[in-house]
Specification:
The protein has 16 helices and eleven strands. The chain is of the alpha/beta class. It has a domain at about 10-260 and about 475-485: Amidase signature (AS) enzymes (Alpha-Beta Complex). Strand 2 (about 80-85), helix 4 and strand 3 form a beta-alpha-beta unit. Helix 8 (about 250-260) packs across helix 16.
Amino acid sequence: MSDRTSSPLPTAAALTTAVRSGERTAVSVAEEHLARIAAGDDEIHAFNTVMADQALAAAAAVDEKVAAGEDPGPLAGVPVALKDNMCTRGVATTCSSKILEDWVPPYDGAVVERLQAAGAVVMGKTNLDEFAMGSSTENSAFGPTLNPLDTSRVPGGSSGGSAAAVAAGFSAVSLGSDTGGSIRQPAALCGLVGVKPTYGAVSRYGLVAFASSLDQIGPFAHDVTDAAMVFDVIAGHDGRDSTSIPEQLPSMTEAVAASQAVGIDGLRVGIVTELSGRGLDAFEPEVVAAGAAAADALAAAGAKVDEVSIPTAVAGLSAYYMIAPAEASSNLARYDGVRYGLRQPGPNTASMMAASRTAGFGDEVKRRIMLGTYALSAGYYDAFYGKAQRIRTLMISEFDKVYEDFDVLISPTSPCVAFEFGAKADPLTMYYNDVCTIPANLTGHPAMSVPFGLGAHGMPVGVQIMAPAMQEADMFRTAAALETAAPALETQGASE
């Protein structure tokens, strides 16, 4: 077992309590995490950019506030890592793509501003599948990220770097983006808690767009309390994001505390039959068993658990892989070698644009751009993109109907545990990893993954909790109950 995972690391809650009380300095916490990065990230490659100087300066500012008796913020001194598709003023934001390799934003994204205002210390920018397109972080232009629990296996994707940073102890928490499961799936594969909020609950201002109607930012953490603390900081209305929800969400930290205090008696939990994995070869038996055990644990804790059918859930994968590439085709049209990013020479403008995009984009990005452009083309729009949007509308209706009888829904997060590099080279096989997570993106509802035991090869299994829009409090309550009941994660496959 790796030293990175052999002993419990301090939680974000413990670190900020120590910093705020003066028991520890934020600088000492930052130095400790920078030392871990220096010792281990050459192997793991969680980071594209380590922001050591900025981190130490931010930590020193926190210590000055503490010394002056000022409130340093709810995340004072907490080391955080940012997925490298979130804009950071003066620091490269590459999306792990050659086409943006040297692009430096002139502004910070909304979530970056909120973390800094809360006293968090940004350690750096993390690796991802190029433009967040992938489920393994094998599609980065700068090389793959390894799973700290077993370096022969992937950390999941597309936010694999953010998940690996937390799993390896390089940061206490991190942020990822989730378009079809890109927070929840790597959280499951790395034994972490990962949260996709309601669409619009967290500002997308400063997030480089993949599929604008699906993208959402959320946290990775070692436990549900830490995830709730970060959620409370980054959530809230932002007038710079036209899709930002004006209503204020209640405190998730308080929801978790309430669950721990009074339990979940009477909570109505639905097991989604179509996403349970029973009888499906693509689902590993240990994953199916963990989902069933999680349902039993919730019932034992006082919840009312029953099965429920949502027929369109199985069509989500097909609909997503029409809608997301179509939006990507539109969003990535801006990378043309003219305004910013990579520019290749050419005898005329059209040749220069073609050469720049050919050299700048990787195979998976090109694949999705072509698929999306085809789906939007004349003569095919109604047959493909339009039909996918109709399925999406029907899915929203079916989920809304089910939520009249259930407070939350559960399923496995991923059909399998972390797999070996190169094991899913076929795109369709890789895409199936998102079968359980995609519905929440299409509906815009919140969902999160919580570790629940071990599966094949001694690797973690994640259980997904879904809830209606803006009902994150019930989702976090359920997550806290599952966390309490979950078997200990003593991974057997970790690297030496």
